Amino acid sequence: MMQDRKTLRRQMRARRRALSPRQQRQAARSLCHNLRSQLWFHQARHIALYLPNDGEIDPTLLIDLCRRQGKQLYLPVLHPIRHNRLWFTPYNRNTPMRRNCYRILEPVLQGKPIRPAQALDLVLMPLVAFSADGGRMGMGGGYYDRTFAFKLQEKALRGPRLIGLAHDFQRQEKLPLEPWDVPLDGIATERCVYRISC
Ligand SMILES: Nc1ncnc2c1ncn2[C@@H]1O[C@H](COP(=O)(O)OP(=O)(O)OP(=O)(O)O)[C@@H](O)[C@H]1O
Ligand SMILES: [Mg+2]
């Protein structure tokens, strides 16, 4: 039986937080290895990622790799005007950071260039649960869904490749999805890469 969104979120988040630092480090290494083997990762120049929170799988091993390969990284920032949307701003290890209203670290925006979501090549998104056919459930704010809603509307406009990052146990046979949920082009875990449209 399909669980409701609230129960599933609670269970998955608790399981994520229960991982030991050692398990997290191992998962992060395997994830990085799996991403590096993808052609679309090599081709991407402008890549958004996130800093891990609440037991999310950690993509930050990619930071030095991307710098060496001349890729520009971005972090999401809560949009100061357009409510409940994300902006993306360049990020490196020296970027000044602050905690936002969710206590999540984000770059200080002052004077920073902003890259619109449409102009990114690859977006590595955190998630709470996924299905192997591209279904994604986040923390429940609808931020990623609103920001990338254009992917639902304009099929002709290619836009960035959306890849969910997760621990493999976050996979569900079937997810309770809603019409506004933006599907993923793929999911990378510590175990493998699930390809949908990539
Ligand atoms: N494109 C949209 N326009 C307006 N409201 C939206 C849109 N997408 C999602 N929402 C609203 O956001 C709320 C949360 O959505 P949902 O439960 O899918 O979050 P989520 O996918 O877990 O979060 P996130 O996208 O931040 O990871 C819902 O009540 C929904 O109505
Ligand atoms: Mg959603």
Number of helices: 6
Q: By helix and strand content, what is the structural category?
A: alpha/beta
What is the CATH fold-level name? Rossmann fold
Unreliably modeled segments: none
Number of domains: 1
CATH class: Alpha Beta
Q: Ends: how far apart?
A: 30 Å
Order of secondary-structure elements: HHHEHEEEEEEEHHEEE
Mean pLDDT: 93
Task: Lay out the secondary structure.
Layout: H1 5-17, H2 21-36, H3 39-43, E1 46-48, H4 62-68, E2 72-78, E3 86-90, E4 97-99, E5 105-107, E6 122-126, E7 129-130, E8 136-137, H5 143-147, H6 150-153, E9 161-165, E10 186-188, E11 193-195
Parallel strand pairs: 1-2, 1-6, 6-9, 9-10
Antiparallel strand pairs: 2-3, 4-5, 7-8, 10-11
The chain binds adenosine-5'-triphosphate (ATP) and magnesium ion.
